[in-house]
Structure formats: structure tokens, C-alpha cells
Amino acid sequence: MPIEVVRKNACSTIGEAPHWDEDSQCLFFVDICANSVHRWNAVTGVEQNIVLDNTVGFVVPWTKGGVIVGLGKTLTHLDWNIEKTTLLHEVDDGLDNRFNDGKCDPRGRIWAGTMGNGKDLALIPKEKGSLYSLDTDGTIKKHVENITISNGIAWSPDNKTMYYIDSVPGVVYAFDYDIDNGTICRQRTIAEFEKGPFGSPFPDGMTIDTDGMLWIACFFGGRVMRMDPETGKQISTVEMPAKRITSCCFGGTKNDELYVTCCVEEDAEKFPLTGSVFKVTGLGVKGFPCYIYTGKCLTTETETIIAETETQSNR
After folding, report:
1. What is residue 308's predicted lDDT score, i.e. its pLDDT?
2. Of 21, 79, 166, 204, which residue is the catalytic one?
3. What order do you get walking across the sheet with 129-134 strand by strand?
4. Which helix (H) or strand (E) holds 80?
5. How many angstroms separate the CA atoms of 287 and 250, rounded?
6. pLDDT higher than threshold 80 for residue 78
7. For residue range 190-234, what is the model confidence (pLDDT) as tens digits?
8. Cα–Cα distance list, 311 to 223, 294, 303 (Å)
9. Fewer CB within 10 Å, N or C, the chain?
10. N-term to C-term CA, the chain
11. Is 204 an annotated catalytic residue?
12. What is the C-alpha separation between 237 and 305, in angstroms, rounded?
């Protein structure tokens, strides 16, 4: 299966959270510790990025304009056109945490989790993070605590199951999912990656295809694996030209292209494509669209900014 480098060495730290926007045919992604949000236009080939004042764990477009980002340990609205940020919520009071990965469910709620800060993986404090949701009415709710590295999230094709990864201890969980109310229950483990030193592969970000199979980025593993969530068994793998694979999403005009992000390698000579964004084709499967936040209101200030922006664009 062909692997194309769509953005060579795009990230200088941790490339993460790819999000394909159907309307604009753009791929959003973040460079976490470079504090930057990126938008690559697949039609024109133009990439734009905005540098913010804290780490950026994820990016999700909003129906009313701009994007929602996990900025430090806040959920923040970013007006892309004027590069203005507006704080929506701050979480994990008193903890040195940050948001890591996040995405929307099919109803347009944002789900995102936090983790403790650390200069490297071995120094990340254990069980300091939590999993949150931002509902479409603008309210935020905590669902799971004692998470070490909050990561990949996906929903089954029938929307009755939510899958969720805590990268350390390397577990893929499943929950019963109530899509009408945005709640989870009956947590269980469906896969547990090999226990061992941090040099061993562990699960990072993930997505799901229309057959209900999970696609899991294997950090330190140099691959994306396709896994059956019913059995917890690996079905196939895509070997990538980078070792620290962080996340993936489906995109393209037919949602049959897999976009993959990675973290910068310590050995750049051995991995010259370190920090790049890749596109994998010829997989023979399709994914679901990346959903966007559909909230009716966030804060009065945000609504005012959007209204003013729309007014100016219509002049």
C-alpha cells in the first residue's frame, strides 16, 4: 500500500491529533510542544500554522467558525482569521496538566483527556489525568479519572460503544455509549499492549473504519495496526517510515485515505522523515468523517466574536 509524505518534517516536537475537514478538504493537526496548530489544504498544497502561548493537544473545527483547541489544560476557541483565542473552560485545578488528544462524537460533542506534564515519558506522573466531554450546550463534564496519558477515542459504527486509550499502562478500553445523553458506563479492557519498558510499542491515537475495526498508532512501534475490538486481535499492520507514530484519521474525498502523524525522533539521521505527516492509500477500507463541534453556545464573548467576524465578512 502506497505511503506518501504530504508534509515533510512539518512538526518539530510532537505531531498529533490529525483531523480531516470535509468541507474545506483540509487536514488540521497540532505540534504539541511547539504550541502550534496547522492546516494543510489538500487541494492547493498550502499549509498555514498559528503559534499559541501554550501546548496544543488537539484541534476540532466549530460549525460557527474557527476551531476548538486543547490549549494547555483549557478548552479554547481560536478564530483562525484573526488569530484570537477565547477561553471556554479550564480543568484539573491545581495540577500541572495539559490536554493531549480529543475529537468529536457523531452528535458534535468534544471528548478530550488530560495528562500530567513531563519532560519525557518516564517523568510523566501517573494517574493525574481525566477524560472530559464538552457538550453542545457548552457545559463540560468529567467522566473518567486516574488516567496517565489520555489518548485515542473512537465510536463503533452503531454508536453504542466508545473506545478509549490510556497509553500508559497501554490499555484500550471500551464503554457502553449513550449517544443521546453523551454518557459512558461499563468500562472494560479489550486489549492490553505488551507490558515493558518505554522502548516497547504502546497504543497512542486511533480511528475506526466502517467495518468497525480500530486503527491504532503504535508509538515506538513504527506502525499503525488494524485491530478487531471484539477479539482484541491484530488483523493487519501498516509499517511507517517513522518510529514514533502518534495518531491517524481517515480523510480524502472518499474517506479512504489514512493520514498519520508522528513525533520527532532522537535519531534524525536514521529517520529523516521525523515529524512528517503521511498519507496511506490502497487500504481497501473507508473511515467515517471527522465530526466537528456543533455547540450552539460557548461563551457570550465567543458568540460576539463570531457574530462580528461574520458581519465583517459580509461587508
Report:
1. 52
2. 204
3. 97-104, 110-116, 129-134, 140-147
4. none
5. 5
6. yes
7. 999 865 444 468 899 999 999 999 999 999 999 999 999 999 999
8. 46, 20, 12
9. C
10. 48
11. yes
12. 45
The candidate with the shortest Cα–Cα distance to 97, out of 78, 79, 77, 75, is 75
pLDDT at residue 303, as a whole number: 54
Report how far residue 240's alpha carbon sits from residue 237's, in angstroms, rounded to the nearest whole number.
Answer: 9
Name the strands in the sheet holding 74-79, side by side, starting at the edge strand that comes first in the sequence: 56-61, 67-71, 74-79, 84-90
CB 294 within 8 Å of CB 136: yes
Length of the chain: 315
Residue 63 pLDDT > 50: yes
C-alpha gyration radius of the chain: 18
124 vs 257: CA distance, rounded Å: 33
Question: What confidence tens digit (pLDDT) does each residue in 229-269 have?
Answer: 999 999 999 999 999 999 999 999 999 999 999 999 877 78
Contact 132, 146 (CB under 8 A): no
pLDDT tens per residue across span 166-183: 998 899 999 999 999 999
